[in-house]
Amino acid sequence: MTATAFERSVSALTEGQTLRVWSVIVTIFGDLAQAPGQTLSGRALARLCAPMGLRDEAQRVALHRLRKEGWIESRRDGRQSHYGLTDWGRAQARAASPRIYGPAPAGPLYLWVTETAAEPRADVVAIAPNLALSTAIDGPPGSMVQQVAPEALPGWMRARVADPALVAEAARLTAALERLRTELPKITDPAQQAVLRVLMVHGWRRIALKLPLLPDAAFPDGWQGAAARAHLGALLQALPRPAPAALEPA
Amino acid sequence: MTATAFERSVSALTEGQTLRVWSVIVTIFGDLAQAPGQTLSGRALARLCAPMGLRDEAQRVALHRLRKEGWIESRRDGRQSHYGLTDWGRAQARAASPRIYGPAPAGPLYLWVTETAAEPRADVVAIAPNLALSTAIDGPPGSMVQQVAPEALPGWMRARVADPALVAEAARLTAALERLRTELPKITDPAQQAVLRVLMVHGWRRIALKLPLLPDAAFPDGWQGAAARAHLGALLQALPRPAPAALEPA
């Protein structure tokens, strides 16, 4: 049996990784039902998760855990459950959105020469005991801060900005998104489109939330984050976010 | 008995340190008999060394060692020995002269951010595993070189340019040279003047040959090297170098 364009796309976006169900559900709510009052039924969630190979039982366990941890709350309506982000869960999703959907941080970039190791932050990458890169100009007291061109950073320094696993994951996602740009025109079912949208966002979210907030040019050789962002942007344009109601089974 | 101006000056220049005779003799030849063919008799050397508290026996041992190590050669002339630098010794003295008599290195100053620790050189000071300061723009392969204003260097960085003992020694010498500027007008004997000249040069030579070749502003808080150089320059102007023949006893 020949795989369909949809199946090929799901494979491309999931191969080589184990999807964590609770993390996929966080992506779903963050992407499709982030606004106050927006909910998704258990059946709508199942419609998104099942084609990703996530079983009903795993979905239930994940929903239970997410409720227990305060991410989501549920409401029963007859035989159906409806789920939505809690205020806290919504705040988390809102805080993550700029990193997932936003552009890469632009310059200027600063080299901090510090007396002792700088405390790591999303926008501060320690690259040696006395060195950090940051888009922030205000280093710790006693530090010497120098503006640097990301293009002028030597390879060994950029190599310490992101680990090889993350660089490899971004390359894999970029290849998958390139494939999607070919397959997507063939996929017209809105439910399938929603599944692919979630998988694309999820794939980038896994990477984006681990990235230091530095310009792409400060990243290691082989870094394809800029290409991944460009593909993702174009694909999300082509797959606009469906309203939660449109995800409910007819 | 009241100390004379000469005695006070010798004390100021030697207190708190143990003069190493062979090193003083190297200073003497480097300062007073560096040119090819210039020699000093054993009696002239004794005339310079005795007022510093260096005994005849210690002088003989030092001359023996310096001959053995190839710094000086001797020639007997009747009952008197005459000593002069070997070609090798002269090359050493000539190489050291700019550091002893010359001005402090001027900027520009560069911060080298290196992948691994930079190999120390006279003009390269390693201040952290990945950091060095240098007046040379050409760091090792893969390094990032940034021009920095010495005045902008944080204290902890300058503190690594010279150790506290050297800073203290420079402060002590500076105080002694200040004292000399008061005492010197009272000292008119050419032999005494020559002794003081040697002691001043020797005091600075001990420091200058240990200093990294960086601008004074890159040195630790309390660094008085610039003052020491200024005093030494003024005093050497007032005590011109005597010809070797003038040092021979009449």
Provide the structure class of chain A.
alpha+beta
Distance between the termini of chain A: 29 Å
Could you spell the SSE succession of chain A in H and E letters? HHEHHEEHEEEEHHHHH
Helix content of chain A: 40-55%
What would the average pLDDT of chain A be, to the nearest integer?
A: 94
Q: Please tally the helical runs of chain A, counting DSSP H or I stretches of 4 or more residues.
A: 10
Q: Please, what is the oligomeric state?
A: homodimer
Strand content of chain A: 5-15%
Secondary structure tally: strands of chain A: 7
- Largest β-sheet summary of chain A: 4 strands, antiparallel
Hey, which two chains have the biggest interface?
A: A-B, 18 and 18 residues
Uncertain regions spanning at least 5 consecutive residues of chain A: none
C-alpha geometry of chain A: globular
Strand sequence of the main sheet of chain A, in spatial order?
5-6-4-7
The gyration radius over C-alpha positions of chain A equals: 20 Å
Key words describing this protein structure:
three-stranded antiparallel β-sheet; homodimer; alpha+beta; four-stranded antiparallel β-sheet; 250 residues
Topology of this protein?
2 copies of one chain form a homodimer.
Chain A: H1 5-14, H2 21-32, E1 40-41, H3 42-49, H4 56-68, E2 72-77, E3 80-85, H5 87-101, E4 109-113, E5 124-128, E6 131-134, E7 144-148, H6 155-158, H7 164-183, H8 190-208, H9 225-238, H10 244-247
Antiparallel strand pairs in A: 1-3, 2-3, 4-6, 4-7, 5-6
Helix pairs in contact in A: 1-7, 1-8, 2-4, 2-5, 2-8, 7-8, 7-9, 8-9
What does this entry show, briefly?
Chain A has 250 residues and is α+β, with helices and mostly antiparallel strands. Chain A has 10 helices and 7 strands.
